[in-house]
Design a protein that fits this description.
Elements (H helix, E strand, L loop, with lengths): L40 H66 L1
């Protein structure tokens, strides 16, 4: 049984083992190149697949970097809120102490 591939499901994905494109009578002349070089196809395909495999890793790295930045900003905001709360408390205590001293001096 001789099974041939289709456009959607080619027999092989290796460009060097695929049949070259040939022009038919219905296509204009020069629309398909009869001679082409696949010398750099393997190298570029290897680089492309390596880059494609590294894309999720790069996305995850960028995502984690963004999460770290958000966590740092959140921690800084919490520290700022706590510092303002302590400052208001210190001002109230200082004002209470000044009132107590003024009352003691007047008596």
């Amino acid at each position: 049984m001789n099974v041939t591939g289709t456009i959607d499901r080619p027999l092989t994905h290796d460009p060097q083992k695929q049949d070259p494109m040939t022009s038919s009578a219905s296509e204009p002349l020069g629309s398909a190149t009869s001679r082409f070089s696949t010398a750099g196809a393997h190298t570029s395909r290897q680089n492309r697949t390596r880059e494609m495999q590294l894309i999720p890793e790069a996305l995850a790295r960028a995502h984690m970097h963004e999460r770290h930045r958000e966590a740092d900003a959140e921690r800084q905001a919490v520290r700022l809120v706590a510092a303002r709360r302590m400052q208001r408390r210190a001002e109230r205590v200082s004002l209470r102490a000044r009132r107590a001293l003024a009352m003691a001096v007047m008596n």
